[in-house]
Structure formats: C-alpha cells, structure tokens
C-alpha cells in the first residue's frame, strides 16, 4: 500500500520524539541525575496501526520489539531529525571533553551527531550490562536488519575498535520509509552484487536438447529441492544447496539462462562482482562477501558468479603475496559456496581453466555450445520478430546454415541492422544490410568471410 510523504513523516517524527525521550532518560540514569530512579524501558514506544505508514507496517509485519525499534530509530535519526541526538554532545566535566562511552562521530559536512555501534551499546546496555547481548544480536549478520540490509555498520579504521563504525540506515530502506517505494540493495564495495534481470521468457531460451536437459535439472531442484531436503530428509545425506557451473563461449546464453531460472521459479538472482570483492585486506574482502551470502541465504536468492575462472582457475605456485592472497580468497569463497543453502551458478568461457578439484564439488556442469543450424534459425527468427521486416530477398534458413554464430552475436547483428534501417527512416532490412552486419561481427574475432557471389535469396 502507498502512503503520502506526510503520513510517513508524521509517524517517523513520533518515533524520533520517543528516541529523544529515551536518550535523555538513559543519560539521566547513567549520570544519576534527578529522575534516575525511572528507566528508559518504561517509556512506551508510540502506538502504530496497520495501514498508517510504511514504518508502521514494517513494525507490525516484522513484530519489532523495543530494542529493535530503538536501534532503527537511532540509525535513521541523523537523516530524519538530527537534533534529537544533540544531547549526546554533552561534555564530561571531569575531563572537559565528550563522553567516550557515548560513542558517535562528527563530520565537516554534517554538524550533527553520527551514532556508532558504541552509541547503541550505551543506550541499551550502559545501565543494564547484561543487555549487551541484545546489541550483539542487533549488529549480527543473522539479524533481519543486517540480513535485509535495513541497517549497516560502516567499517571503522583498522586501528579502531569495531564499535567505532558509524551505525546507519541504508539509503534504499530510508527511501522506503519516506516514500513507501522499495529499491534494490545498493551495489557497493561493502555489497559487491547487483540484481540480474532479463526481459526474456522461458520460451525464448534456445538451447541444444542435451543442454536444455541439464538446465531443466537445475530448475527441478529450484522447484522441488526444499521438499527433497525436508520431507524426503535428504538433508541427512547431502549438503544443503545446489551448485552448478555454466561453461562455453561468450554469447551462448549462460547469463540469460541463469536469469530465466530465477525468473521462472519466482526468485531474485544477484550477480557477484568479482572485480569489487578483492581488497588488499583479506579480512575486509571476507566481510564484504559474507554480507552477500548472509543476505542471499535469508532471502533465498540465486548467486551468479560470472568469469569465475578469474578466481577459481588453476593455481600456480604461490610466488608472491598476491598469489597467497588469491589462494586465501579462493579457499574462503569456495567454503562459503559449499556451505550456502541456496543455489550458486558459476559461469566461465573456458572449462579448461577451471581446477578439476574445484569442479568436482559441483552438482551440475553445463556446457553451452555454439547453436546448430536449427537453433540458429530459431534465434534469427526470434531476434527480428516484432522489430524489423526482412526483405523478401533474405533466406534466413540459408543464413542460419552458413554462418556459425551464437545468440549474443545474432542480437548484435540485429542492433546494427536496425540502426541502418532507422537511418533510412524505414523498418525494412535488406540482404546487404544483413551480410554487412554479419561481416562486422566476424571481424570482432579477427575472422573474415567471403560472401561475394553467394546467393541468400
């Protein structure tokens, strides 16, 4: 349900007023000021009702407790009503400086108090030390706030304690609470993955029969795997999850197939960006990857690793620190993949580059090949359908027979032909357009074709 900005802000401001009262009471208790005999937990959070705002619906749907609401309110305060945290700028009269136990940082571009994990520890556990376990849970990757990427704990400098990191709400959840509109998780170094989508349908998938048979095995697991693991008790005999490798030349449908498997089984699929996960600090890389796996496990995503041989290829002797680091990362990632309860698909152009010891751990190895003449004809027909008109001098069956092209290459040719047609202010594709576009596509691979005198009508 959609809500107006006024509805969403009204409820969020009430939550900010409650947070301000809680912060004041915690400080009062901690410093033994007048009124310290009261307890912040007795300050009742605002009553929320269903269909009141995006935040209200979240509280009720997730059944958030008081600790969770306090943590969420603290995380979004700098963005919603920063002045409610100004009291935390208080000065310790004994040392004439701020209270280190309050945590928090400031920034030149932002005059307010930015809460850290230490701030959350202070508010919840300063007067009740045993409640630290509540904060530990809130900051854990297993908690729904972290798993759903509602809140995040920014990495602190390597020389600082872990709790010195800024605790904040993520941008896409802040947008949702303000507007009621969900956006995809942010693609960043701390979350090196992005959603993979396709406009195609399952019937658009043109693969050799033997390849499609292997792909259907993966689809069957996605449809019935949970029944096999729980009802058939297969979980007592095999590791959870399903792991597959797609290998073959570029343009043969590896990425499209992965995206369609997700689309057809009602799942989301996220492509892990291998170029963003390698940090010079192995611990930081593991942390970034861990976050992706935790979220994917919680939300039942499919994880897709493209160009996987860059990490899982055959290894040479570890002659440098970079080699050792790469081996460490590969070992860590392989272990996470093996322990992942969902579906992982790795794609590579060259099967020979993959380490045999690694691939043996996978349930399915699917070889994507250059399509044969009958598949190519279907790809040509699918490509031009509802886009351009083919002139009567074009014999697609002959084109499909004579030119060995992958589906991705055929789409590139379609694009080039369409550009030629639109420049003439028409939608008709002529034989010369098609042959010239085919020639250009072959030239990308330093291949030449001689079409002089050949008949395609």
Task: Please explain how this structure is put together.
The chain has 457 residues and is an alpha/beta fold. The protein folds into three domains: 5-179, no CATH class; 193-367, 3-Layer(aba) Sandwich (Rossmann fold), CATH 3.40.50.300; 373-443, Helicase, Ruva Protein, domain 3. The chain is built from 18 helices and 14 strands. It has a six-stranded mixed β-sheet, sandwiched between helices. It starts with a helix and ends in a 14-residue tail after the last helix. The mean pLDDT is 88.
Record keyword descriptors for this entry.
457 residues; 18 helices; two-stranded antiparallel ribbon; Helicase, Ruva Protein, domain 3; 6-stranded mixed sheet
Task: Describe this structure in a few short sentences.
The protein has 457 residues and is α/β, with parallel strands linked by helices.
Outline: elongated
Question: Termini distance?
Answer: 57 Å
| Overall domain count | 3
Mean pLDDT: 88
Helix percent band: 40-55%
Structural class: alpha/beta
Neighbour order of strands in the largest sheet? 7-9-10-11-8-12
List the uncertain runs. none
User: Main sheet?
Assistant: 6 strands, mixed
Total of DSSP H or I helical runs spanning 4+ residues: 18
Strand content: 5-15%
Rg calc = 28 Å
The number of distinct β-strands equals 14
Please state the oligomeric state of the protein chains shown: single chain
Blueprint (SSEs and pairs):
Layout: H1 5-30, H2 54-62, H3 66-80, E1 91-92, E2 97-98, E3 105-107, E4 110-114, H4 117-125, H5 132-138, H6 144-147, E5 151-153, E6 167-169, H7 171-179, E7 193-195, H8 209-230, E8 242-247, H9 254-264, E9 269-272, H10 274-277, H11 282-299, E10 302-305, H12 309-312, H13 321-339, E11 343-348, H14 356-359, E12 364-367, H15 373-384, E13 389-390, H16 396-402, H17 407-423, E14 428-429, H18 431-443
Parallel strand pairs: 8-11, 8-12, 9-10, 10-11, 13-14
Antiparallel strand pairs: 1-2, 3-4, 5-6, 7-9
Helix pairs in contact: 1-3, 11-13, 15-16, 15-17, 17-18
């Amino acid at each position: 349900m959609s809500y107006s900005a006024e509805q969403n802000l009204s409820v969020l401001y009430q939550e900010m007023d409650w947070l301000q009262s809680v912060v004041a009471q915690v400080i009062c208790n901690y410093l033994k000021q007048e009124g310290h005999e009261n307890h912040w937990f007795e300050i009742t959070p605002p009553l929320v009702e269903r269909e009141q705002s995006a935040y209200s619906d979240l509280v009720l749907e997730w059944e958030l407790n008081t600790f969770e609401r306090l943590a969420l309110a603290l995380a979004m305060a700098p963005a919603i009503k920063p002045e409610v945290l100004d009291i935390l700028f208080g000065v310790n009269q004994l040392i004439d400086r701020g209270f280190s136990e309050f945590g928090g940082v400031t920034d030149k571009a932002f005059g307010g108090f930015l809460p850290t994990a230490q701030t959350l520890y202070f508010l919840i556990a300063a007067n009740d030390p045993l409640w630290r376990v509540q904060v530990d849970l809130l900051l854990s990757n297993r908690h729904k706030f972290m798993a759903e990427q509602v809140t995040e704990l920014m990495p602190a400098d390597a020389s600082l304690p872990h709790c010195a990191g800024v605790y904040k709400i993520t941008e896409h959840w802040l947008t949702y609470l303000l507007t009621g509109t969900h956006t995809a998780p942010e693609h960043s170094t701390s979350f090196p993955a992005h959603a993979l989508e396709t406009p195609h349908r399952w019937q658009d998938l043109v693969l050799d029969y033997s390849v499609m048979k292997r792909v259907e095995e993966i689809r069957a697991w996605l449809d019935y795997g949970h029944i096999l693991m729980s009802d058939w008790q297969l979980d007592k005999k095999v590791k959870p999850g399903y792991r597959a490798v797609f290998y073959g030349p570029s343009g043969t449908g590896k990425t499209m197939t992965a995206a369609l498997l997700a689309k057809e089984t009602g799942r989301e699929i996220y492509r892990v960006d291998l170029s963003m996960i390698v940090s010079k600090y192995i611990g930081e890389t593991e942390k970034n990857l861990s976050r992706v796996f935790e979220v994917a496990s919680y939300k039942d995503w499919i994880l897709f690793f493209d160009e996987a041989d860059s990490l899982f290829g055959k290894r040479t002797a570890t002659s440098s620190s970079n080699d050792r680091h790469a081996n460490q990362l590969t070992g860590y990632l392989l272990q996470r993949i093996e322990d992942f309860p969902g579906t992982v698909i790795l794609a590579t152009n060259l099967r020979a580059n993959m380490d045999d010891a690694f691939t043996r751990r996978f349930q399915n190895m699917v070889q994507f090949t250059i399509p044969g003449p009958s598949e190519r004809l279907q790809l040509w027909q699918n490509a031009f359908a509802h886009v351009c008109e083919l002139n009567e001098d074009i014999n697609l069956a002959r084109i499909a027979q004579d030119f060995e092209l992958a589906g991705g290459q055929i789409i590139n040719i379609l694009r080039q032909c369409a550009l030629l047609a639109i420049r003439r202010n028409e939608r008709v594709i002529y034989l010369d357009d098609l042959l010239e576009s085919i020639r250009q596509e072959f030239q990308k691979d330093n291949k030449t074709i001689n079409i002089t005198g050949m008949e395609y009508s």
